[in-house]
Predict the 3D structure of the following.
Amino acid sequence: MSSGKKSELSHLMWTEKYRPMKLEEIVNQKEIVKGISNLVKSPDIPHMLFSGPAGVGKTTAALCIAREILGEEWKKNTLELNASDERGIKMVRERVKEFAASVKLATDKDFDKPKIIILDEADEMTSEAQTALRRIIEDSSRTTRFIIICNYLSQIIEPIQSRCVVFRFTRLPKDNVVEQLKYICEKEKVKYEDKAIVQIYESTGGDLRHCINVMQAASGMGSINAANVSTAIGLSGRSKVGDVLKLALAGKFHEARAKLLELTQVYGMSESDFLKYASQEAYDMKLDRPEEFSELMAEYDYRLSAGAHPEIQLAALLAQIGRLGSKKS
Ligand SMILES: Nc1ncnc2c1ncn2[C@@H]1O[C@H](COP(=O)(O)OP(=O)(O)OP(=O)(O)O)[C@@H](O)[C@H]1O
Ligand SMILES: [Mg+2]
């Protein structure tokens, strides 16, 4: 996808549209924002390490820091890397080297400012890769500052932790999430029910990105009411249906059942929707015995429509899928 197209699309996403541009606009995380604001004013900015759960403002804070330190030219002097999705530490080393050494323009008045490297999902790196990263940080620290982001601080090797100022981001509390979601509804002129907003919060446990995405999906169905929110949550759980099938086929009955319960109870997916999505998934998975699978699905579809207890029936279905999986030649 070209970057032009990407930014066009990202503008349509509320998560991007309402991503804070300045540190003081970040919801909650007050102590962190205060700490960071002081650090970015200091003449010698340290490397930073952010940890915490998904969707609470880590990447947002890193981008705000880059803007605050580098001003208008921030984009040119900031490198965003994802440690997990590219070609490992070699790529990181090459990109960092190239970036740190890139010549500054004669017109660049901010030549005394460091370049900033935001390294997301660093806890996906092996400890060997992190050791190499530590060297890279040291070698380039004359000209660059790192903001390293992870979900689990315990997965980051100590020598990296000790070279950074560490900020632990926390889950956003209910009141903050609810307030932000209502703010977005008002800006977007979308009608909402208070109850439905709370339902969004409760289904996602303080992951504001997930909340905003669910809310945007629900708004596409009209307004933010309980029924639309349930449907939107069900849609977002759909991607997990394949996981349930794979676990069941591998004979991991208990894990498959736990995931299935998560889908029905947390994501609000109905049992009959589960069957529907599972049939589609199974088709895409190109099973060894598609006809047997189809017969199974039809049988359980019938049982559910006849009013049998859905939880018991679906557990039995998973057990049968497991038997089907073990027959594999
Ligand atoms: N503290 C916050 N204040 C305001 N908006 C937020 C906050 N946290 C998250 N958001 C919203 O959620 C979106 C995603 O946030 P962000 O990218 O900062 O999450 P993250 O903590 O980096 O999560 P991940 O670990 O999944 O990368 C933002 O674009 C913004 O719309
Ligand atoms: Mg992030």
In short: Residues 310-326 form the longest helix (17 residues).
